[in-house]
Amino acid sequence: MEKVIQELLLSKPIQRLKGIHQGGASFLVNENWNVTRFEHSIGVMLLIRKLGGTLDEQIAGLLHDVSHTAFSHVVDFVLENKSEDYHEEIYQTVIDESEIPAILEKYDYNYKDFLLNHSKWSILEQPLPELCADRVDYTLRDMVEYKQLPLREVQRFLSNLTVLEGKMHLQTIEIAEWFVKIYYEEVIDFFMDPVNIYGYAMLAKTLKLALDKEIIALTDFQKDDDGLLQKLLQSQNKEILDLLGKINPNVKVIENQSNYDIQRTNKLRMIDPAVFNGETSTRASLLSRKIMEMNKAAYERFSQGMYVKILGN
């Protein structure tokens, strides 16, 4: 592996990601939901490499999540940031204040020339409903870890991926149908699991209160999950400790639209991969009624939102 990659892997910003859970508050309500941003970042880099992406794009993939705050997207709920992109807003600041520019300059890279514009990396990032390395890795990684998705199926999918004019395509409609199903298991069955919704809402409530009471500052979100959690615990504030005590694996919640304690409007996450048959590129939903129906059902589910009733914590 290239020396620049080796040094970046050992840098503080990348090593910090070992303590940032991909699922935000999820690991507090289910200890098995424990995939980290570190694992994901390496996976994205390796997927870009597998698909023939340049070393520059591999570096961009490795570094794309370094600005994620403690508990990942929970901060967006604390700050009521509906775009869920706070980490993108602070990306340049985090990079500027780290050793990353010095490491890159050592290998003749000026990071401002290529690192601050993710839109130029077409394998790494694409807007929905396209496939991209970021979206593919977190979907498959979570489903392998949490739903026991067989690795042979993942390998079959990866062997079906190709890059055409810089964008990911699938080569058969059958594989496209498989991925669309898996993707919605991720963003609906997992992201919108009532226990997950509860964990996010309660932790966001706790952190917002801690900010209001000046127990923590926004800069404390630059710690890892445990670092921020320890600051909350060390405060000895009864209200904060009581709220933290309610975020645990024994919580009992159900989805209930008529009698609920937590309501959450979900970010619209639709997927519709491009399929290349060797001659033309076509949107999968135009080739498959099954995908069209899955997308319709997903749209209705996202539009409906989540309503969670707390039975006990």
Number of strands: 7
pLDDT < 50 stretches? none
Distance between the amino and carboxyl termini: 47 Å
Q: What fraction of the residues are assigned to beta strands by DSSP?
A: 5-15%
Q: Helical element count?
A: 17
Question: What is the overall pLDDT average?
Answer: 96
Structural class: mainly alpha
Summarize the helix and strand pattern as letters: HHHHHHHHHHHHEEHHHHEEEEHE
Global morphology? globular
Q: Helicity range of the residues? A: 40-55%
Radius of gyration: 20 Å
Description:
- The protein is mainly alpha-helical and 313 residues long.
- It contains 17 helices and seven strands.
- The strands form three sheets. A three-stranded antiparallel β-sheet has the order 3-7-4, covered by helices on one side.
- The model has no long low-confidence stretch (mean pLDDT 96).
Secondary-structure map:
Blueprint (H helix, E strand, L loop, with lengths): L2 H8 L1 H5 L9 H4 L7 H14 L4 H9 L10 H5 L7 H4 L1 H6 L3 H7 L4 H4 L18 H15 L3 H10 E4 L2 E4 L2 H18 L3 H19 L12 H10 L3 H8 L6 E4 L6 E3 L9 E3 L4 E3 L5 H16 L1 E7 L1
Antiparallel strand pairs: 1-2, 3-7, 4-7, 5-6
Helix pairs in contact: 4-5, 4-11, 11-13, 13-17
